[in-house]
Design brief:
This protein has 13 helices and no strands. It is mostly helical.
Length: 277
């Protein structure tokens, strides 16, 4: 019989007294100690882990979106494409997470739903910050965070900055001039379809060789919104599957609220131009 394999024979570190280990670096004691079910229901752990991991992915999405927006202000915008592509992959991961949550039946959820109180994903400040960063802005959505002034301040500050799409439009304007009315908009309001902007993007799509960087940027934005829309759709179907048409724990209409959000367009001009090409 051969001796059990010992990785230390190939140089693997096996002693970590006074050294930083994997657990230390990732702060796993804190991460794995952050799940505190409020009931004895088996599926509450699934519910907590699902939402905590989603928040971690959203943290990374914000990290990449803010980096992309900053890069788009520079002379070489190509490095931003990597960050935007990464955000699309992040939302692909978030989409897959709904498949796990859907293994929870309506009967399972009723065993701990009351323990949630008024808490709801509707109150995720990171999700709201992602929407604000992308351009879907509504100051009223800051109100659920009034009890946490530091979060409200974070969201308010985002409403003073050009969104990711505003930054893209500034690049478009530098090559294909847009009317002042298309650029001087109220930053606290969502992007609305704009015929002049749509026409400018159409010019890019009709001559991609001349405007390849803008063309690639546009497609990266469409990719991102495509995955974002899928995430919203999967959210709706998961909620309807688990609670039907009940109100959400946070007081929203539940499925009716989520279906309304399906109608939101982040980059409307990039979608509308396709009809006329």
């Amino acid at each position: 019989m051969t001796d059990p394999y010992d990785p230390s024979g190939e140089g693997a570190q096996m002693a970590f007294d006074g050294r930083m280990s994997y657990t230390d670096y990732l702060r796993l004691d804190q991460v794995l100690g952050a799940q505190h079910p409020l009931s004895d229901a088996h599926d509450e752990m699934l519910f907590i882990v699902q939402h905590q991991t989603s928040e971690l992915w959203m943290r990374l999405a914000l990290h990449e979106l803010h980096a992309a927006r900053e890069i788009l202000r520079s002379d070489d915008i190509r490095p931003a494409f990597k960050s935007l592509a990464r955000v699309s992959r992040i939302f692909e991961q978030l989409n897959s997470a709904w498949d796990v949550l859907r293994t929870m039946t309506p009967s399972d959820y009723t065993t701990f739903r009351a323990a949630l109180g008024q808490s709801s994903g509707f109150q995720s400040h990171q999700y709201r910050l992602i929407e604000f960063t992308l351009g879907n802005r509504n100051p009223a959505m800051i109100r659920p965070h009034a009890h946490r002034p530091e979060l409200a301040t974070l969201l308010e500050a985002e409403l003073t900055r050009p969104s990711l799409y505003d930054t893209a439009l500034a690049l478009l304007n530098a090559r294909i001039p847009l009317p002042d009315a298309s650029l001087d908009r109220d930053l606290q309001r969502p992007h609305a379809p704009d015929a002049a902007v749509r026409d400018a993007w159409q010019e890019v799509y009709r001559d991609p060789k001349t405007y390849w960087d803008l063309y690639e940027l546009a497609e990266k934005l469409v990719d991102l919104e495509d995955y974002f829309r899928r995430w919203r759709f999967n959210h709706v179907t998961t909620v309807e599957r688990v609670i039907g048409l009940k109100r959400g724990t946070g007081g929203t209409g539940g499925v009716s609220y989520l279906k309304h959000m399906l109608e939101v367009e982040l980059f409307p001009d990039l979608w509308h131009l396709r009809t006329d090409l």
